[in-house]
Design a protein that fits this description.
The complex is a heterodimer of chains A (268) and B (303). With 268 residues, chain A is mainly α. Chain A has a domain at 14-79 and 143-252. Helix content of chain A is 75%, strand content 1%. Chain B is mainly α and 303 residues long. Chain B has helices at residues 3-29, 34-44, 59-78, 86-114, 125-154, 166-193, 223-230, 234-255, 262-291, and one strand at residues 123-124. The chains are: A mainly alpha (268), B mainly alpha (303).
């Protein structure tokens, strides 16, 4: 492990996190679509938001794993790359595959990620052992976050609905950038030699909640007040819980959280 | 070119100047972007500090978030369903963006400093309280100005009527603004203010990484001191740079109608770039001759 970028040992296994992320993300997206369609309302859009948080957790852990190799200033770039791969694949999947779009999109994004990782290792010769596997997770997480937040806004999966509610209204801007910051901020904010996995992941829940809240605001126009307020309310509660939990972990890990005072002895 | 277009152009230039200045000062209070790595390194080389460490991301993505979020909130409130007045909608949007900024700033400060525990870097709650509000206030001004520029470009009752929706235009201006703030303003803070103990213009030797000034004229240096310093030059010059970009770019399409005189507008753009490059070259050579430590130059003062 590089001291500059840091990172402690992982308590939660990466395979478990990837599985939970993929499962939770896809389940959230489809549950929101099906329940909204059956009831004919937008009240279940928040389920896609919960799926987005699961995907953010998977993405944030992938960022953490690759950036522990000393990529300090590259953390935001990795997040942007995830969203770039995700956006292209997600739109392609939705355009060609209808309701199966999310699964196709996520699969293509993961393949895309693996290919980019292979290029980085074999052609550019970066020689980072986890590159292929991490970029595969990141591509999948990026695609899932984009699709999930778009479903929060449009209420269902159809490509035409997405075009009308998410792309033509311009809300894709917030889906893209709020999703990207949700994935990159957890590790970027905790970067350093004493970073711990649980603190990073708790922050990922918090930033995922923020992204869900932002998508909830946009859905005020598209799915109606009831569904949007429900999404925003649930996102706010998740964010608050995660933020307080994060503050507890900060107090646990830091040299000291003090009201005010001079520098530590030997600091001057 | 009519008087309304010219007036709007002037308003956009003025708003962009204010946005540029407030964006740079916002990033300076939090030591975001380039100066951030030095603040991050300081504790590791033995200088614990009371400087705010706001590592959200580079300035372009974070400003894109604030601008896009403010624009989304504004466009929701202005939509037919809610019908709020544009001025108040943008104000509410900027407020939401400032709150998001505050949350991301706080988590970065706490997280980065907690990850420096082995170097005895404390987390000071008074720094968190006083600085976060300052950062949010600057972010509010920035988001308000950027979304207003975007609104002027897209509103259906105004002459420009850009085909892209408001959030996408705001997103693009946010990235542009962050890039200008990062390249223009950060030099003043990152290369000069943090390394005041070294000769002016000395550059940053790798061996001096992290050796930043942590003591102020009286007491310990805070990031609000740094914003005060940068408000003298770095902030205004960032504002000027962004203001000129917005003004000159829109000026050429205002005097030449893009539909019928598109090539004239493109030619004017190329001419502006060439003129600015020549001016920059003259400025660079002149300042290197005057300040650069070259062997053949003995200085202006006769011994």
């Amino acid at each position: 492990m590089s001291v500059a970028a840091g990172g402690g040992a992982s308590k939660i296994d990466k395979t478990k996190l990837t599985m939970y992320g993929l499962g939770g993300g896809i389940l959230g997206i489809y549950l929101a679509h099906v329940l909204n369609m059956i009831t004919g309302t937008g009240y279940f859009s928040f389920l896609a938001g919960l799926g987005a948080i699961a995907a953010v957790l998977m993405g944030a852990d992938a960022v953490r794993r690759v950036c522990a190799y000393g990529i300090g200033t590259g953390v935001p770039s990795i997040g942007m790359m995830a969203m770039g791969m995700g956006l292209v694949a997600a739109m392609f999947g939705l355009a060609v595959a209808g309701v199966a779009g999310p699964i196709i999109g996520i699969a293509i994004a993961m393949g895309f990620g693996y290919f980019v990782g292979m290029l980085a290792n074999k052609i550019i010769k970066m020689n980072i052992p986890v590159m292929e596997e991490v970029l595969m997770s990141l591509g999948g997480a990026g695609a899932m976050v984009i699709i999930a937040l778009s479903v929060v806004i449009s209420g269902q999966i159809g490509y035409q609905d997405m075009l009308k509610d998410v792309i033509f209204t311009g809300y894709i801007a917030i889906v893209f950038i709020a999703g990207a910051l949700a994935i990159l901020q957890p590790f970027n904010a905790n970067l350093g030699p004493d970073e711990t996995q649980d603190r990073t992941l708790v922050l990922a829940i918090s930033t995922g909640g923020l992204a869900m809240f932002a998508a909830g605001i946009a859905s005020l126009v598209t799915v109606g007040v009831g569904g949007a307020v429900l999404t925003m309310l649930i996102a706010a509660v998740i964010w608050l819980k995660a933020f307080l939990w994060y503050f507890k972990l900060v107090k646990r890990d830091s040299a000291g959280v003090i009201g005010t005072g001079l520098l530590h002895e030997g600091g001057l | 070119m009519d008087m309304v277009s010219m007036g709007l152009l002037a308003a956009m230039g003025a708003l962009a100047t204010i946005a540029g200045a407030s964006e740079d000062l916002e990033s300076d209070v939090g030591s975001q972007s380039n100066p951030n790595s030095q603040v991050q390194l300081a504790a590791q080389v033995g200088h614990t500090h009371r400087i705010y460490n706001k590592a959200i991301s580079g300035e372009p993505p974070s400003n894109a978030l604030y601008a896009a979020l403010a624009a989304v909130v504004a466009s929701v409130l202005m939509s037919d369903a809610y019908g709020m007045n544009a001025f108040f909608s943008i104000a509410v949007g900027a407020l939401v963006a400032a709150i998001f900024n505050g949350i991301l700033s706080m988590t970065s400060y706490m997280g980065r400093n907690a990850s420096q525990a082995r170097f005895n870097q404390y987390i000071y709650l008074d720094v968190l309280r006083s600085h976060t509000t300052t950062i949010m206030a600057h972010a509010y001004i920035t988001a308000f100005c950027v979304v207003t520029i975007s609104y002027i470009m897209t509103a259906t009752w105004l002459p420009i009527q850009h085909p892209f929706p408001l959030p996408v235009i705001a997103f693009t201006w946010g990235i542009a603004l962050g890039a200008i703030g990062s390249s223009t303003g950060d030099v003043h803070y990152g290369a000069e203010r943090e390394f005041q103990q070294y000769p002016f213009g000395a550059g940053l030797n790798a061996a001096n990484s992290g050796d930043i000034v942590t003591k102020a004229e009286a007491g310990l240096r805070s990031s609000i001191d740094n914003a005060w310093f940068c408000a003298k030059f770095g902030g205004p010059v960032t504002g000027l740079a962004f203001g000129l970009i917005v003004f000159l770019d829109n000026w050429r399409t205002t005097i030449f109608d893009p539909a019928t005189q598109g090539w004239y507008a493109i030619g004017t753009g190329v001419l502006i770039v060439v003129l600015l490059n020549v001016y920059n070259r003259i400025l660079e050579v002149r300042s290197k001759k005057r300040y650069g430590p070259y062997p053949e130059y003995v200085g202006d003062i006769k011994v």
